[in-house]
Specification:
heterodimer; A: alpha/beta; 3 helices; 6 strands; globular; B: about 775 residues; alpha+beta; 6-stranded mixed beta sheet; 5-stranded mixed beta sheet; flat
Chain lengths: ~80, ~775
């Protein structure tokens, strides 16, 4: 699993694949006030990316990847 | 495996795919709601597309890809399957078949075929009504014809807009995730990426309505790689991208150079982009080689990839040695892997020269092994993984050319003959050399070899067995097209398509069957109006049934049409001088129907497109009889016609009974023999020339084989005054052949008469016996 769900935040790590988009989507819908930590994230699948863009969770650390960071720059910082 | 063999393999597999596709297309037309069928159809088209990618057959790939897209939309329910789509797909499929033929004969595709395949692809795509698919179909035109920048370009930051480069808007289709695509990864890995922004196409819906597997992303990116590279990168989604070349002239005004532009001046922009990619592909290819059980085809394509990569490195001095070593390499995966390691371009080299450190690990694969994104290089890497899948398949199913099987079969045939020499040897050992013990041992050995030979024969038969369904497949299409043309409503029902028979038998049947089905369509089934008037359902039914009855395959083609018009048949037969008038009038209904089998018979007054070209039922009959089959036709006026074909399962080995006539041995095929009896001379009744006897209450005409073969001898009776009579079935009646003696049966390989003997009637062929003698095989049908 490239996503670890801890109490109030989801940790996205390494390469997050398409299979995890739904889980993340459900989790974010259930916990609307939670945050995501992308600090250790290398790559997200487009489906995961659009989950983040659509559900707009607060972001703790932006990912190292430059373009991904740009794409998610619009999200609130936690 | 060399290139030509791979091409052959491709043609073979493509044909198989097309066959299934053709079948599925018709199935789907009948049951458009069946998801399974659609999925299977889509899979086949997808496989075909993947195979096309192995070679540089652009026109073929475009067409198949267009078909795949249409089917994908249909599969996901966003496009309703209708007649127009079916026609377009069928037409495209026909053309694909043509292209494959072209490839098979010439090994490539001439450029002039491109136009037609483009037109067909366009026609297919016109069904994809969604604007995102239709609009950017001709990206070049957009770039040239629109001096004003489209909206999406105007939104770009001004300093990027004024740089030289290629701007791409990539709008993945909503269902792309189900195809295993990762649009973000694809955009992200664009060569020479200098800007990438992602936005929703439509505003995001409320959280509850949001579907994370429906892609709502639009990406705009700028790359400083050559346009061709960028287009190559997006080659699998050409209809989803819009490409625009930003004015190079604007560079002069450009102010802020982007962060990554700090490359050493010595290295060209091109190298900066390509070299890290080359390194990555190199690693990918090595990973492919390292997999267990790499097929020869994969090794070859990997090898080609390496050669291409070296050429692309664009530094002749350093690659010349590697290229030479590659050319001198023996075939096989291991030497190639060693070579790839030895000459691997290092990431450091790429970085030192290029300054880009984006050497990512080999792409992650998703789901069923579909690449999540297309690697940014020539068409080779992705097909490598496709052919990998193909290799796994071929390990389970072995494709062998028929020549090899035939050779194996004739060898086994010789083996059977050779084995038959052993009993003779045993007899000699006993009689000539008085070695009873040895004789017994030879016989024991013979029985062992005999068993093995029989098993071998059986096994090779199984290999040659094909389901009858393989020839039925084309009928669905035939019936569809012809019934449309004739304005008839015809339903084709096929039963028992899994029944198996020898490949030769099946293949020899294809043409006669087509003729029969055409006849049924043309003459049998009436137009809907006539059918309604006759109180029948408006749509006619042609039912083809196949089943096995002991060692024969029975095929029945039954239509519920008007039946054979016997008056017309009689009149035509007389008109064409096939039978005299008075005889025609006295024929029974059932016999009159059989007149259609006369050579030269045709009821058609004008030669239509469909039938009446003089290729009549007699051709059907002779084709079927050539493989030892029988044709029967029965017809009930107003209710339909039934044609029954009975065929042997296999014709490789014939079981014959040996008989003796006037001191000579002849063989008679066992399947014609009803029984062998000894009839006392007193029980034979003579009436004028004809002799008959009564067997189980039935009169059986007797013919002496001596007379039929013009041998100067009389039938020999045994001590009890009985004559040997072989009762054979000829057509529908039994005939007794009087012979001198019966010998045992034997399995023989029947060799047809050749050369000057080919015209000899009365004989089916010859066979070589175990003792080296030649046995003539009689054909009683031609004798009597």
């Amino acid at each position: 699993m490239a996503i670890r769900y801890v109490r109030k935040s989801a940790q996205l790590e390494g390469r997050v694949t398409v299979e995890e988009a739904e889980g993340l989507s459900e989790w974010l819908k259930k916990h609307p006030k939670s945050t995501v930590n992308l600090g250790k994230c290398e790559h997200v699948h487009a489906a995961v990316l659009q989950v983040l863009m659509a559900l707009r969770p607060a972001v703790k650390d932006l990912p190292g990847d430059r373009w991904l960071a740009v794409a998610l720059a619009g999200l609130a910082r936690a | 495996m060399n290139q030509a063999e791979i091409l052959d393999q491709f043609v073979l597999e493509a044909r198989e795919c097309l066959e299934t596709i053709g079948k599925r297309l018709l199935d789907v037309e009948r049951q458009p709601d069946d998801k399974e069928l659609l999925n299977d159809l889509f899979r086949q088209v997808h496989t075909l597309k993947g195979n096309c990618g192995l070679f540089e057959f652009k026109s073929l790939e475009h067409l198949v890809h267009a078909g795949e897209d249409v089917l994908d939309r249909v599969r996901h329910g966003s496009l309703a399957y209708n007649d127009q789509i079916a026609d377009a797909l069928l037409e495209a499929m026909d053309y694909t078949t043509q292209l494959i033929d072209e490839i098979e004969t010439h090994g490539g595709l001439p450029a002039e075929l491109d136009a037609r395949s483009k037109a067909l692809a366009q026609q297919l795509r016109s069904h994809l009504s969604e604007p995102s698919a239709a609009a950017p179909a001709v990206p070049q035109a957009v770039a040239v014809a629109a001096p004003r920048w489209p909206d999406w370009v105007s939104k770009l930051p001004a300093e990027l807009r004024s740089r030289a480069g290629v701007a791409v808007r990539y709008r993945p289709e909503p269902e792309c995730f189900f195809k295993g695509e990762d649009p973000w990864n694809l955009a992200h890995s664009t060569p020479g990426l200098i800007h990438l922004a992602v936005e929703p196409v439509a505003p995001w819906p409320a959280a509850d309505a949001f579907d994370c597997y429906r892609c709502n992303l639009e990406m705009v990116l700028i790359s400083d790689a050559p346009r061709a590279y960028v287009e190559e990168h997006f080659r699998y989604v050409p209809e989803q991208i819009e490409v625009l070349e930003l004015e190079a002239a604007a560079v002069a005004v450009a102010a802020a150079p982007p962060a990554e532009a700090a490359a050493p001046a010595a290295v060209s922009a091109l190298d900066r982009v390509t070299r890290p990619t080359i390194v990555r592909i190199w690693l990918d290819q090595r990973a492919v080689l390292a997999r267990p059980g790499v097929s020869a085809g994969t090794v070859l394509s990997v090898r080609t990839s390496f050669a291409h990569l070296l050429t692309c490195w664009a530094d002749a001095a350093s690659t010349a040695a590697a290229l030479q070593a590659l050319q001198a390499l023996p075939p096989g995966a291991t030497p190639l892997a060693a070579w790839a390691q030895q000459y691997a371009p290092t990431a450091e080299a790429a970085v030192a020269r290029g300054g880009v450190t984006n050497v990512s690990p080999p792409e992650q694969r998703l789901g069923a092994g579909v690449p999540t994104s297309a690697p940014a290089f020539a068409a080779t890497p992705a097909p490598a993984s496709e052919s990998e899948g193909g290799a796994e398949r071929t390990q389970r199913v072995l494709k062998v050319s028929q020549d090899k099987i035939d050779r194996l079969m004739s060898l086994i045939g010789e083996m059977v003959v050779a084995k038959n020499a052993l009993p003779y040897l045993a007899v000699r050992a006993e009689e000539v050399f008085q070695q009873r013990e040895l004789s017994r041992e030879i016989k024991a050995q013979y029985s062992v070899i005999n068993r093995i030979a029989e098993d071998m024969q059986h096994a090779i038969m199984q290999v040659r067995m094909l389901p009858v369904g393989t020839i039925f497949q084309r009928f669905a299409r035939l019936v569809r097209d012809i019934s449309k043309k004739l304005g008839k409503d015809v339903q084709l029902v096929i039963e028992g398509e899994e029944t198996e028979a020898d490949k030769n038998v099946i293949e020899s049947l294809a043409d006669p069957l087509i003729h029969i089905v055409r006849n049924s369509l043309d003459h049998g089934i009436e137009t809907p109006d006539k059918r309604r008037a006759a109180g029948k359902p408006a749509h006619g039914t042609i039912r083809i049934t196949a089943r096995q009855e002991s060692d024969r395959v029975i095929l029945e083609i039954k239509d519920d049409g008007a039946g054979v018009n016997t008056d017309r048949v009689r009149a035509k037969a007389v008109e064409r001088g096939l039978i005299p008038q008075d005889r025609a009038a006295t024929l029974s209904e059932a016999d009159a129907v059989q007149l259609v089998f006369l050579p030269g018979f045709s009821t058609a007054d004008t030669i239509s497109d469909l039938s009446g070209r003089g290729v009549g039922m007699d051709v059907v009959r002779s084709a079927v009889e050539r493989v030892n089959g029988l044709v029967e036709l029965s017809s009930v006026s107003g209710q339909g016609t039934t044609i029954r074909l009975s065929l042997p399962l296999s014709m490789a080995v014939t079981n014959v009974m040996m008989i003796e006539v006037a001191g000579r041995c002849f063989g008679v095929p066992m399947d014609l023999i009803v029984e062998t009896v000894r009839v006392h001379a007193e029980d034979i009744h003579s009436f004028k020339q004809a002799q008959t006897t009564v067997l189980r209450g039935r009169i059986v005409p007797l013919r002496a084989l001596h007379d039929l073969l013009a041998l100067d001898a009389q039938p020999q009776a045994n001590e009890e005054g009985e004559l040997a009579v072989l009762v054979a079935r000829l057509g529908n009646e039994n005939v007794g052949l009087v012979v001198d003696n019966f010998h045992g049966t034997s399995d023989i390989i029947l060799k047809p008469l050749e050369g000057v003997l080919a015209g000899l009637t009365g004989f089916a062929g010859t066979a070589l016996m175990g003792d080296g003698s030649v046995l003539m095989i009689l054909n009683p049908k031609e004798l009597t």
